[in-house]
Predict the structure.
Amino acid sequence: MVVTAEGLRKLRAQYLGTREKADALAVLCLTVSIFLPFYVTTAVCSVLAVVTMIDYERRQKAFASLYTRVLLGFLLVPFFVAAMYNNLWGLLVSLILYAVVICGFYVRSVMTRALFAKALDAACLCSVGCAAAALAQKLWMLPSAPEYRPVSTFSNANYYGAVVELMLLVCLYRCFTNRPARKWYLAAAGANLLGLYLTASLSSAAAACFGVLVFLALQHRRRLALFVVLAAGACALLALCFPVLFPRVESIDVAWGQRFSIWKTSLLGILEHPLLGQGAAAYRIVGPKYGGYITFHSHNLLLDGLLNFGLIGMGVFAFYGFTQARLLRLRFQNNIGRSVNVLAFSATAAVLAHGVTDVTIFWVQTAMLYLLLISSLSMGASFLERELEPQRPAFVPGSLTSAY
């Protein structure tokens, strides 16, 4: 059998085509898993993380950036820190966090414009199913527990609210980028608004409004932005006049009192171990120790990060975030994928706004959805990412002088 160069090229093309289809299927399966119970998302993330680590080509492509490797290297530290302080829950969370981050880098490395559109359309469809599940839960519990907050397929109502705030941005984005199907996306947005109302999550509602306003401002849609402001104002007025429509508004003082107790307790824990923190989910240890309000986390993104990972860890995260902000700025300046840039920026704005009073992003489903949205920053910008890499000085013969 004679092997020719043309035959090798065809085999190579077939191999790459098969690999690309497998990657696309994996991303779509991961997208659907986000809207299923968290253990399904965790399992899919873990499988994709393992496949990425053992496959040389996928690993090299996913971890091509120096900043990516620095972040992954640091994320090994919280595991040992948690073990040091006997933070057993933190050990498990550290492993899941590592899998989610690796999975996020994998998704970013294989993302294309066509795949991104398919993934977001799948997310829109799944979010409508989640809203239907939330409505069914509310109706089922209404006779016995009128105050019940449906969780849909998520662990609690706040996580569901965090997913909804991102999905509203996705629906808006697809309205602008796929105009023939605009009515479908508006219907999906309406279903998600229903889900947001059912969750009764004030933090999610505020973050959603902020993210949508940022999105519309960047798209220069002033009239739509004004409409959102007026609608939010009308909802606030209704809450004051008819508090029965928004039951949790009446207990907002209690919620703020709990927040202040949590934040004070978190600060005490941070001062005790300021450099590397006490590992993931450290508030579970700190809360009972200092007599603070018992909950799962610090209900503030900055405080929770410092408590879990310390000043060094937050410095690493901030440094990586700064490089991504630079990449986003370069994409805007070079007019590369403006619509996806707006989506990534507004999603980040919503996450940070929500992070003032809650830490819902620190969860496998919410984190994976956010990483899916910002994976678009890799599309068509490989040359910009290379510009962000530190440049080694070129060696010039004779430039080094002997000390002797």
Confidence is low (pLDDT under 50) at residues 399-404. The radius of gyration is 23 Å. The chain is about 75% helix and 0% strand.
